[in-house]
């Protein structure tokens, strides 16, 4: 299934109107089946579904690594993914009993909202990046997202590894875009411990929790953080940055990883 489709619309401009072709993004419900049991379903864009599933399962601590997956099959015209894997039963049970609808776009469940219940380590390490690198990468960000360029209707995420390696995720839901970008990296067994992550939307609690679960040290956005997102970042040592625009930004917590004026 193609992620976009074309349709004829009526465009109004300068008191006139005319017919033209427009490109819209598709929206599907993706079901994730693990070991013959339905883990959940989410509204998403039909592209990179495998990466989305891997990123989601790891961010929810259901699997520890890609090596836990024995098989993965995309079926039903891309609307169902069936996975056989070694799983953490405690995480599956918690997701089933404590999962809530997250505040991001689309509809998904997570059990990783309460900072006291997040099963993750404090992010450590000596990563430090120049502020100019973050400004440059954020400036390039939107020019590297083809679905956004075509439709203007998706959230985007970019995981920066180094000058030669980065991973883009695009989806109608911003938490899906993040899972896709991370999932792509994990499927290639990429070390993400010294990476930084950029997202297009707000830094809400579920977005920050996902970065923490994957031990990504820096998370940045063009928009703001919520209070709960900030609390999670503070507790787990995540460098959280908002309003990265031009050569300005707000570093909410753990600024030691950003070298200013370099």
Largest sheet report: 6 strands, mixed
Give the amount of beta strand, in percent. Answer: 35-45%
Provide the CATH architecture of the largest domain.
3-Layer(aba) Sandwich
How many β-strand stretches? 16
Secondary-structure element string: EEEEHEEHEEEHHEEHEHEHEEE
Mean pLDDT: 87
Bulk shape:
globular
Q: Give the helix level as a range of percent.
A: 25-40%
Order of strands, main sheet, comes to 11-10-12-13-14-15
How many helical elements?
A: 7
Q: What's the name of the CATH homologous superfamily of the largest domain?
A: Cytidine Deaminase, domain 2
**Assembly status:** single chain
Structural class by sheet pairing and helices: alpha/beta
Low-confidence stretches: 98-108
Domains, number: 2
Fill in the CATH topology of the largest domain.
Cytidine Deaminase, domain 2
Distance between the termini: 45 Å
Over the alpha carbons, how many angstroms does the gyration radius reach? 19 Å
- CATH class designation of the largest domain: Alpha Beta
Secondary structure topology:
Blueprint: E1 4-13, E2 16-25, E3 28-34, E4 37-44, H1 49-59, E5 69-75, E6 80-85, H2 89-98, E7 100-101, E8 109-110, E9 129-130, H3 131-141, H4 146-151, E10 155-162, E11 165-171, H5 174-187, E12 196-199, H6 205-213, E13 218-221, H7 227-236, E14 239-245, E15 248-253, E16 258-259
Parallel strand pairs: 3-6, 9-16, 12-13, 13-14
Antiparallel strand pairs: 1-2, 3-4, 5-6, 7-8, 10-11, 10-12, 14-15
Helix pairs in contact: 1-5, 6-7
